[in-house]
Every structure is written in C-alpha cells, then in structure tokens.
Amino acid sequence: MLSCLLPTGNYALHLLAITSMTMVHVLGYNVIFGKGKILHFGPIAVSLASGYGTFVTLTWTGSYLLAVPIGIAMAVLLSLLFTWLSLRLEPDGLGILTIAMHQIVLTVVLNWTPVTRGALGLPQIPRMPWLQSNVALTSAVVLVATAWFFLMLLFERSTYGRQLQALAEHEWYAKALGINRPRLYLIAFLIGGIGAFITNLFYHQYLYLVHPSDFLFPVLIFYVMIIVAGKPGSTMGVALSTILLIFLREELRCLPIAASVLGPLRMMLFGIILLAAVWYRRDSLFPKKRTI
Amino acid sequence: MKRPLALLSLAALALTACQPAGGSTIKIGFLGPLTGDIAALGKDMLNGITMAIDDVNAKGGVSGKKIELVTEDAKCTGAEAANGAQKLVNVDKVIAIIGGFCSGETLAAAPITEAGKVLLFSPGSSSPDVTKAGSFVFRNFPSDALKTIAMAKYFNESGYKTMAIITENTDYATAQRDALLKNFGADKTVFNEAVEPGTKDYRSLITRLKSMDFDVFVPNGQSDSTNAAMIQQFREAGLTQPIVGTDTTDSQVVIDIAKDAAEGVHMVNVPTSGEGKTFETDFTAKYGKPLSSIAWAAHSYDAAGVLIEALKSGAVDGEALRQYFDAMKEYTGVIGTFHFDENGDVVGIPFVLKTISGGKISTVKPIPID
Prior knowledge:
- The complex is a heterodimer of chains A (292) and B (370).
- In chain A, helix 2 crosses helix 11.
- The longest helix of chain A is centred in the first third of the chain and has 27 residues.
- In chain A, 76% of the residues lie in helices and 1% in strands.
- Chain B has 2 domains: 194 residues, Response regulator (Rossmann fold, 3-Layer(aba) Sandwich), CATH 3.40.50; 125 residues, 3-Layer(aba) Sandwich (Rossmann fold), CATH 3.40.50.
- The interface between A and B is large, with 42 and 51 residues.
C-alpha cells in the first residue's frame, strides 16, 4: 500500500502528466469563473469543440500542422460566442445557457457520426513525433503547465487581472472608472479557451483516444470543485488545489476498500470537500455588491 | 545548492524506480464499471471472475501461489479506465487485467497495457475497434460484426423485410447498429433513430413508429433497463411487431421492469451461458441472482478460467500469457469452446436465438454463421 501512496516510476509519471494537463485548463477556467466571477459552465463545451476540431482534422488529414490551427480556431470561436453571451445576459441566464451549450456541442459530437464517429469516439490517435514516449510527453506538458502557471500568475497581478477583479466585485464602480468590460471578458474567455485547447491537445495524445464519455458534466463539477476549494481567482490556490485533489482522487484507490464501495465513497468525499469549501468561503465566493 | 540537487536526484530516482515483481501471490487486475449506469453488469462480471479465482485458490492456487484480484472501477469512461490501468500496471504490477467492459474502457487501457506488456482480456467489449487495439488485447466476447451477421441471418430466415431500430447513443449500441445496418441492409431500415444516453421515455418516437410499416423492432440500448423501457412503451402503444434484441435485452432486469410486455421478446446472443448447468446454480448459491444477466458472469468466469489455464501452463508474465493465447488451440468453458484469431478476437463462440417466456429466458435454437 505504501508504494501506492508514495507513487514512483511510471505511476508517478502518470499522476504528474494528468495533474499538469488538468491544471492548464483549470487555471484558464479560473480566470473566467474564479477571477471574473462569470457564471460560465461551458468550459467542457470548449474542450469538446477544440478537442474534436483538432483530432477529427488529424484523423482526416494526418497532419498536426492543419489539426492544431483548426483546434485553436474552434476554441477561439466558441470563446467568442461565450464572450458575446456573457455581455448580453444576466449571470443566471448565462449559467443556464452555457450548460445548454455544453449539451448542444455534445449532441453534435454524438450525432454527427460521419465526421466524429459519434459515441464510438476516435481511437488510435497518433502522437506528435517528439512526444512518442510518456516521459517526453509528460516532460513537455509539465513545462507547458509551469509556463502557463507563471503566465496566469502574471495575469492575476497585471492591470487586466486587477481590472477583471474590480469588475467582478463592483461592476458599476469599475465601469465608472473607465474599465472596458467587453475587452476584459474577451481576454478572460480567450485565456480559458486556449487553456482548454492545450489540455486537450496533450490529453488525447496521452490516451491515444478521444471519447465523448470523457466530456460529461462530472468533469465540469470536478473543475468547479478545484476552483472553489483552491479559492476562486487565486492562481496559486487553484494550482495547489488541482495537485491535492487529483492526488486525493487517485490515491484513494490505494486504500484497502472495495472498488465498488470506493466509487460512491469518493463522490461523497468530494461532495463534502465542496460543501466545506463553499461554507468556508460563504462570504467571499460570490460577494454581494455593496450598497450605500 | 547541494540540497536542491540532492532533492532533485531523489525525485528523479523515485520517478524511475521499479517495484519488485513476484511475491507469494499472482496478481490479476479487474477493470470495469462498478459505479454508474451499467454497474449491475460490472458487478456480475466481477462476481464471475471472483468465483473462478476462489475456485482455484481453494484448490491451492497455481504452482502453490494464490491468485489475488485487484479491482479498479473504470465507470465506463476512457479517462477512469486509463487511471485505473495505470495503477494496476505500474503500482500493483499485475500480469494481466480482465476488462474493460465498455469498449471505451478497453481502448483507453490498451495503450497502457501494451507499454507495460500486460495482458488485457475483455469479457464484454464488442466494438470492432478493439480488434486493432494491440497485440496484448484479447476478448472472449464476439465483435459486433459477427453478432449482427447472425441477427441479419435470423431476420432473413424469418421473412422480415424491414426493420425499425432505436439506438441509445453510446459506443456499444452505436457500433452494434452500424454493423447491423451493414449486414441486414440500410435500405431495409425504415426507422433509425438515436436517443441520448440514459433516455427512458421513448413515447414520442414510438408514436411516430405507429404510422410506419415495418416487420421487426430492435431495441438497441446500452443497458437492460433502457431496453426494458423501450419494450414496455412499444407494447403499451399497441404495436404488435416482433421484438428482437441482443445482449443487453438478455437480462433478468428486462423481465422485472417490462413484465408482461417482455413476453415473447427474442434475443440474438451467445448461448445462455451455463443456464441450468452447475455454473448458474453455483453462481446463484454464492452471489444470489445475477444483477443483469448470467451471461456476463459466465464470460468473465471463462476469461478468468482461460487465464488460470495459461498460468498453470507456466506463463509468468504478460508476454508469456500473450504467446499462450496466440498458440492456444481451444478452451472449453461455460460459454462454449473457443480460441483466438491473430487479432485476439474470439473464434468459435456460437450464437443462439433466445426468448422470454413465462418470465424466464430460454434458448430457442442455434444460429450458425459461416
């Protein structure tokens, strides 16, 4: 059991890879949902669009040179759509519509079978030539995740980051001070979209598979939980929370508990963590606007 | 400076360290859906495997070593299957994994078992994609390509000219529909609709079906409860056409949910593995009635059985197991006598027509295919 709780070798490499890959997307999403406090529940829709955009193109053309720009374009297009919606809808309306968008994109993927192969997914995804081994892929993704982390840290402390926070906390005052809401929301959604693209670019090469079952709502719930537990908007907190929660999720497998019991137990434990985090941050999670 | 370097070296050492293999037990992994929509099928699978392992352990194990089963829940998703397979291969150091059940599980786990030279044996994945999943991948559940040949043959023999099919949009059901359309004829399929996974209300689709002319209805869901709902609502609407399902209709759950509506429903599946024989009696005595179907338990029991035979022959690692299966002439288990082709697909499993009559599933006749 100890060798499992203190992972070594390939398993440690695996945990490092999935943590790094998840962190990129979650940190990007944290800019929108955590920092900007925008009720956006569609990050998995962006994942779906960019992931399928990339790997359907790759399957049809065999070229990453074509697949990568298509994947980026899909992420950017959906991010633009979400930006537009966020500027025109009230927070609750946006929340519902982004959930609907997730369902719409998933439905397209599941039913556009001549292109996406529907529920069968896309198996045997070839890796980029320089990412053939797991060591190479993990090294690359750790480097990218580290760079992304520092970029997010810079953003958090930049003028844009502070302006986004100001908008989230006191929208009218911030606007009165000349903060450009459309521009900031566009930047936030683009960061989220590019984060989704990077994660998907690596993750499906790592699995050699793109499968619609990996884009369902439980993934979104896990992301939201990471952000809430790590402190919404905090790059450092969310990065640490990603590491801790993924390790917790995977290390729970090491406990001598039957797998059939562990599944529900894990969900309950995560539910309790989420409840505790929300309770602890009940005043700061989505602060009330100040009134005079 | 020395301290960070030393820490870095330690970390590098930890990352590349290997766990000692061997020990007093032989470790085999299980990877399947133990939670989620099709947990019932996964639990039947697990019980079948446990039963085979308990049997051999009670007789002293293999070469004096007991077999230890390490279980991982893959939830019928690729991501969870990859996580589970990584732990089984790299932490538990199993020499073989029985699983996955869903084809997405098997396809995600296959690259990991290939890299670790660990045998992956699926007793439930039927997608044609699994055929090309890797040289360490075997299955004793026939590909949809074969099953639907048997279905098409039965339809033609029965004089069914046209078919209506409702498919749950999952990998298993979609692959099955595509293969059936290919083998029976897309032009003979007058109604072909897909519904989102987990749908239980088919009344609007069935209302449309009432105005159509077709000879046979195929409920093509991922799970038995889905098929039960389709069958119940189909009969409730007054439709009288014959219903022919497949594996996931071959389940006690269909009878329990659909009740009278299930009477007369036919299924094309592998033989009702062990029904009325010692296996079913023994299984029921130990675990109670199967949660879904005895067939899944039997396929899994035989997967463990053939693996135990390979271990008894002296195979001690994944490579030796692979060579054993490649060279294996035949194995006679509960589900029949089988061997594997060059892709690891099962050869020799026959198909039969079954029916639900008097609240029980029974075999009607074999459907031999060339």
